[in-house]
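not sure who needs this but someone in the group chat was asking about Peptidase M50 from Rhodococcus oryzae so here u go. i didnt clean anything up, its just raw.
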Amino acid sequence: MLACGDAPIPPRLAELATVTAPAVPTKPDFDELLPRLDELGERTTSVPRLIVVGEDAALAAALTRLMRSERLSVELAYVAATRTAATRLYRLPTGSPAADLAVLGRAAPLPLVRDDSGTALVGLASITGPEGGELVGETYADSTRLFSGTVRSVRVAPTLEAPGVRATVGRGWGFLGPRWTSARAVQTGSTAAVVTRDGVTTPRSLKRCSFYRHPQDWLLVR
């Protein structure tokens, strides 16, 4: 189990082998954990399962590390204390029921969505201008242009099945019109785009950002 930040650990999980990490784990936090998963897979016939206790950013960090280290055969289970974008998307329980599911549930493949920095997206990304201001540029979902000019923001999320990713444009304070456009890739070009991915904001503005489906699926306990 990977316990992140100050997330409460349900009693059902209290006796599991645990690695603690910050709310947003980084590569060094997985240096001890991943070899232990490898050893578990070698000793048993069962597929290794990693239970992540924390918020969406913690789950995304774990998935990112599995993807980058070519360990996507490892099952991921997610235990969040409260509702998040990812728990809503994947229809997951929270708290003690999530802990029960993490132990007893079965994993199913899902499209893995990543960005062009090689970071996985598990719940929701928002793209705005600097300091949350208007976004100037254009966004395409595959060959469909979602906007060109100025909008309030763009939101991007994974889908539960093909093609893998979807996006919606906010032209005012709300999100109006057709809500989502699905695609294999969503690409934004801008004079200055700030991306908040699963609650983590990029430290600097970007000229381009892309979210697209990875060739290999990931395994989530649902």
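also The chain has a mean pLDDT of 94. if thats useful
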